[in-house]
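[[Sequence with tokens]]
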Amino acid sequence: GLLVGEGIDLVHLHLPYTAALGRLVVRSIPRSRRPRIVHTEHNVWQHTTPVVRALHRATYRLDDADVAVSTAVWDALPRPLRSRTEVLVHGLPIDELDNVPLTRSEVRSEFGILPDEVLVVTIANMRKQKGYEVLLETARRLVEDGLPVRFVAVGHGPLEEEVRRSRDEIGLGTRFVLTGFRSDAQHILAGADVFVLASHYEGFPIAVMEAAAAGVPVVSTAVGDVPRFIGEGGGGLVVPPGDPAALADALRSLILDPSRRREMADAARSAGSQFDIRRASARLEEIYDNLLNAGDQSSSRVQQG
């Protein structure tokens, strides 16, 4: 009703389950009034549940255009679907990030970070995918080694209470601060010495792009396109997923070496300059225009779903 009543000309679908159902809804509309469909694949295909994956695959060809957010996401697609899918790395409003005030001292004061302490920040919703159990074990190892490090984790989600309980059970206390949801995550990055991501899988996480653009060295699991843009570019270190010993070793090497952190900060900032949202937005607009012009639409409205 909404699609027809509002005269929507194009629908952009995202999550696999909603995309599959959305395609069927759009296809139920008479051809003369049917919107065009664009779909973005955000995550690695194999990590979708089997039932949703089957429905997604069965309806994928109903799209008019498909894009994947990273090479890793594209590589994980079933081979027959790759030829119809374009890699389009999403991005950030780089100009706005440049205008974020440098609040390092304020951030460190808020969390009680001492001058000689290294602040390690993660920005990740609390879901199984994000590997908080690995990160907590990593933090425990570093704290027990006596390293001058503090962790701040920004994010919320279904595992928030479980993560908090685990943090307390292993005795990290104020050495591992959980902020919950914060709308000012970019400001918190301004106080960070290192950004860490312990995910088991990703496409290309926005948080890594934000950290790089802010000039914060990244230590991440080798997920999605992170090794390609961060590891190879010298802006950080990558380790295998699910390996707290390797993650601890990588962090330790930066915690103990301020000059190396500074070098990686410069490389990270250089890598982050690639992630300008204007490039991705321009390409999406081109895709929209091509589809709408092909359909002889005189005016266009786009519905995100």
Q: What stands out?
A: Residues 277-294 form the longest helix (18 residues). The mean pLDDT is 88.
